Amino acid sequence: MKAKPFKGVVFLLVLVFLSLSFNHVFAQPEYAKWGKTAVEETAKEYPEWKLINYDYNGKVVISEERTQYNFKLTLESDEEQKKQVLVYVLVNPKTDQLSEVQFDEISGSS
Fold first, then answer.
1. Cβ atoms within 10 A of the Cβ of 86, count?
2. Which of 14, 33, 96, 106 is in the most buried spot, having the most CB atoms within 10 Å?
């Protein structure tokens, strides 16, 4: 008769373990939101170009109120020309608000 409480505890532990595992598996990286912003803003800045590659190049904490997320996007034109653009997404980490987006084309891209 004492086996029932033990089974209940084991069942609850399994549920807790599974919920923690699923949350970990499906969690998005910290930069995902700002990567989406980088892609959307690049599409506005370069409307004739299509995105063919996206790389996250880390973040830089500039101050308590300014963090920069760095991305390198490779774009391609209809004529199959390619260009690489560094995209800097500046954010206020205290408010989780976008401050600005800056673009820097990498020279030598064709």
1. 16
2. 33
Spans of the chain below 50 pLDDT:
15, 21
Q: Look at residue 12 and give its three-state secondary structure.
A: helix
Residue 93 near residue 65, CB atoms below 8 Å: yes
Residue 88 CB contacts under 8 Å (≥ 6 apart), including other chains: 68, 69, 70, 71, 101, 102, 103, 104
Q: pTM for the whole thing?
A: 0.73
pLDDT tens string 50-73 = 999 999 999 999 999 999 999 999
